[in-house]
Amino acid sequence: MPSAIIVGSGPNGLAAALTLAAGGVDVTVLEASDSIGGGTRSGELTLPGLLHDHCSGFHPLAVDTGFSRQFGLENHGLRWSLPEVQYSHPLDGGRGASVWRSVDRTAGELGDDDNESYRRMFGPLTRRFPQIVDEFLQPLVHVPGHPVPLARFGLYAALPAALLARRWESEEARALFAGVAAHSFRPLWSVMSSAIGVALGTAAHRYGWPVAAGGSSTITTAMATRLAEYGGRIETGVSVRDHRELGRPDLLLLNTSPSAAADILGDDLPPRVGRAYRRFRHGPAAFQVAFAVEGGIPWAHEPSRRAGTVHVGGALPEIADAERRVVRGEMPERPFILVGQQSVADPDRAKDGVHPVDAYAHVPAGWTGDATRTIIDQIERFAPGFRDRIRSTRSLSTRQIEQYDPNFVGGDIVTGANTPFQLVFRPRVALNPYSAGIPGVYLCSAAAPPGAGAHGMAGWNAARSALAYLGSL
Question: What superkingdom does the record give (predicted)?
């Protein structure tokens, strides 16, 4: 039986392990931490009984993928829960906009000026999204199986987000798109800055933005359970610094950053690949604050109280300015903030009327300041009385985020800058972007296509490539 070692037990590492094990490979996963899961770990960060997701909280692209269809984790303890409002965007004065599963309802609440325009964009994309998502959850350079829906998606995705947002007239509609586009950690006037916003916005209508009931850790727990059924093993507390420590497995898959992969592979890495891995660009960072909030956040925009995710940043010009400054290495006075209200979809995470809330501010890479007060002030701006409801907080700086997961270099929780070049060619220019240029060695982290998310597709794609290599021997 061929053997494989996977370094790193985040969702991509475990997806790779599971895919290889199902293909008849003897698999061992090595994890440096004492617990598995990488960015999908969960726990009591503030008060006893309040369950927080440590990083990844909502999973709109994990519901219907090649990996999820193959392994059916819902039969192994994973259960998805949806909020009533998928995401929202409050504005000053109690105004705002919200995204519901229904395109028609979302469009209808935007008003007469924007109703038809929203339907024309998101209606066709939503209907064909299963075909579209299969295309972009793999390397972008490939022969498309569904060229027509992919082309329609690409026409929107290629535009600067700030420009695409101008198809709508109202401040609410423009801000609504700016908030979801800001997930890219890119200046909103840059080419292709719409791509992630269009994908996540369409996913909200097709699949919703679900949370894993019982915490994101149940995703990787289900993977580990399935892996054990195939005879795979996971060893925690094992740090790998040199691949020569691992013996001679037939396959080696690295769920690491490209620079860490270069360190592990050392002089055995072809020089051109080593240079590419060292040049791989990481993006801006996140500063996280976990809150325990009595009664939940009292948003002045009422639908935001029912939203799983709330984008906090004001109108389009304010978000665009904040994102531009962050990419330039400047800390904005009012940063864009992503607020996760997972207990809206999964009420068992709350206790005695106190709710766990996870907030992430976009900050410059490696920023060493403390954004706790800034985050509180920004939320208070749109939810008067929020400050008085806080019962406990726990903050994580960019440095602490990297210590928590070394793949998040400098606090970069999306594992790589979403520049136009890296959206197409990540982690390097190659026909097989997963291959490290050494027979049987692959990079399977979110630095490889299709990038960030707890969907496991980078690991699934890399493992399938590895299985093809074994089949060619």
Answer: Bacteria
